[in-house]
Amino acid sequence: MRLSAYFLPLLKENPAEAQIVSHRLMLRAGMIRQSAAGIYSWLPLGLRVLKKVEQIVREEQDAAGAQELLMPTLQPAELWRESGRYEVYGKEMLRIRDRHDRDMLYGPTNEELITDIVRGSVKSYRDLPKMLYHIQWKFRDEVRPRFGVMRGREFLMKDCYSFDLDKPAAVASYFRMFAAYMKTFKRMGLTPIPVRADTGPIGGDLSHEFHVQADTGESELFYDADVVKLDESNIDPTSPDVQKYIANWYAATDEKHDQAEFEARVPEERRRRARGIEVGQVFYFGTKYSEPMKAVVAGQDKTQITMEMGSYGIGVSRLLGAIIEANHDDNGIIWPEPVAPFKVGLINLRAADAKCKEACDDLYAKLQKAGVEVLYDDRDESAGAKFAAMDLIGLPYQFVIGPRGVTNNVVEIKNRRSGEKQELSPEAALALVAGTNA
Ligand code: ATP
Ligand code: MG
């Protein structure tokens, strides 16, 4: 992509409405624009990252055995009356009436809708288990939308639902998702902290939240510093000891925190009290929805079995804020490679110079041919402005070509994260970034 043609409205000044760094940087880097409180448009650069995050989530859901479908954003109120949640769910739910005076709502979550779909087609014990997910916009009319995409009103969520024959199988589904979540967040360059959590309006009795540590996080966590050693490859979801393995390390939200237990179990030097951003949550809630909504299958001996359920959410759009909170410096964003909107930012230091242009155009074409995602700053701007823009949008590699580089046949390469610079021939520069793509 040529920057001269790209829609990338960068802001020079810090927007006054943004209180935290990720919100500030997403606005300044031209990733999002607010359309109403807590409701954002995703501009091209922001959308590229959103899609990358979404794709990592999708791959790990698929690998865990979940199948993707797509449910609508609007739901009929009747289903929520069946589960009993229509009256219980607070003002966060946006209630709408259509032209025929039917009560509708913009889904804040989808337990009822998926249960309706499954009960309509899954009739025999042989049809279970099933795990179904979608990645869809949700609406919650939050009292205080703030911090940009971190607490929006409209936001993108991955929500998955499991249906099993009995509790042991449902708990195994729960821990299969637990392991998938650890992998998902690690692939994005994050260090997830899984903590015991309250179940809130979703209900149930087994739940964990996954947090990213950040001073701007809205949750308070108490945990054993060694919890980062929890290795998802050691999680055998069907083992009766899986819960014990995870409970090896004390980690809880403030609602679930027990100071006496914390002090008894965790040596002082490993006790952490920190703020966290909730990027995902998993719930096992048994028959909370399947019972009132009569989601049953015929068992082997013709008995009726009520399905055992769980649900599993990831805040896809919130993750962008969390990733930036964990990856930035004074000059801007530092994208972890797997979610970077482009891998390379190619800077032509002297756009008006024919030789520089030729060398840059040539490397640009070769990068593209090698499948490397590259943003080419071919604008007629000062070198300072170009460096500042590249640092702000945080691409992992900056390739810089100016008159001196052309003479010596070298590209200056800057690693955005380490700040290290090296000079390589254009061929070696290409090989450096094409290695993992080609
Ligand atoms: P919170 O406690 O932050 O309000 P929640 O516990 O109500 O979130 P869940 O029902 O667990 O949210 O939804 C699944 C995931 O969706 C959350 O872990 C979070 O990452 C994301 N999410 C929830 N609310 C919002 C929001 N208002 N804006 C952006 N993401 C959100
Ligand atoms: Mg939650």
Question: What does this entry show, briefly?
Answer:
The chain is of the alpha+beta class. About 30% of the residues lie in helices and about 30% in strands.
As a whole number of angstroms, the C-alpha radius of gyration is 25 Å
CATH topology grouping of the largest domain? BirA Bifunctional Protein, domain 2
- Name every ligand kind in the structure: adenosine-5'-triphosphate, magnesium ion
Spans where pLDDT lies below 50 across 5 or more residues: none
Output mean pLDDT. 96
Structural class: alpha+beta
Quantity of strands, as a count: 23
For this entry, what is the oligomeric state of its chains? single chain
Number of individual domains: 2
What is the molecular shape?
A: globular
What's the N-to-C terminus distance? 18 Å
Helix content: 25-40%
Biggest beta-sheet profile: 9 strands, mixed
At the first level of CATH, the class of the largest domain is Alpha Beta
Beta-sheet strand percentage?
25-35%
Judging by the overall fold, what is the CATH architecture of the largest domain?
Answer: 2-Layer Sandwich
**CATH homologous superfamily grouping of the largest domain:** Bira Bifunctional Protein, Domain 2
Separate helix tally: 13
Can you describe this structure?
The strands form six sheets. Strands 3, 7, 8, 9, 10, 11, 12, 13 and 16 form a nine-stranded mixed sheet that branches. This protein has a five-stranded mixed sheet with strand order 20-19-21-22-23, sandwiched between helices. It has helices at residues 21-28, 44-63, 77-83, 85-88, 111-121, 167-187, 242-247, 259-265, 316-326, 354-369, 383-393, 403-408, 426-434, and strands spanning 32-36, 39-42, 67-68, 74-76, 94-97, 103-106, 130-139, 154-164, 193-196, 206-213, 219-224, 251-253, 271-286, 296-298, 304-306, 308-315, 328-329, 332-333, 344-348, 374-377, 397-401, 411-415, 421-424. The chain folds into two domains: 48-329, Bira Bifunctional Protein, Domain 2 (BirA Bifunctional Protein, domain 2), CATH 3.30.930.10; 342-434, 3-Layer(aba) Sandwich (Rossmann fold). 31% of the residues lie in helices and 28% in strands. It starts with 20 loop residues before the first helix and ends with a helix. The model has no long low-confidence stretch (mean pLDDT 96). With 438 residues, it is α+β, with helices and mostly antiparallel strands. A hairpin with a 5-residue loop joins strand 5 and strand 6. Adenosine-5'-triphosphate is lined by residues 109, 140, 142, 151-152, 155, 157, 200, 202, 278-281, 313, 315, 317-318.
